[in-house]
UniProtKB/TrEMBL annotation:
Species whose genome carries this gene: Camelina sativa (False flax)
PANTHER family (UniProt xref): SERUM RESPONSE FACTOR HOMOLOG (PTHR48019)
Gene name of the record: LOC109131975
Coarse class of the protein's main subcellular location: nucleus
Alphabetical UniProt keywords: DNA-binding, Nucleus, Transcription, Transcription regulation
Protein's UniProt name: Agamous-like MADS-box protein AGL12
Length: 93
């Protein structure tokens, strides 16, 4: 396999086909990671047309978002929400 250049696909039909294939692959990898590592994973994808695709491997997406909000203290856009198991068990200050 050769490397592909990462740039927008101009042909709308090719772009849609690529979106569908890569979306399926991403969701498959998320499920595999969840099973192999017993990880709780949530994925949210919006298509270019605005259609929602989501995956919550344990429970619901709403529960996943609640857990995220609790871990980040309700801060939005926190890209570094990495905590140790001990930090997650401590009550918030």
């Amino acid at each position: 396999r050769g490397k592909i250049q990462l740039k927008r696909i101009e042909n709308p039909v090719h772009r849609q086909v690529t979106f569908c294939k890569r979306r399926t692959g991403l969701l498959k990898k998320a499920k595999e990671l969840s099973v192999l590592c017993d990880a709780e994973i949530g994925v949210v994808i919006f298509s270019p047309q605005g259609k929602l695709f989501e995956l919550a491997t344990k429970g619901t997406m709403e529960g996943m978002i609640d857990k995220y909000m609790k871990c980040t203290g309700g801060r939005r856009g926190s890209s570094s929400a990495t905590f140790t198991a001990q930090e997650q068990l401590q009550p918030p200050n």
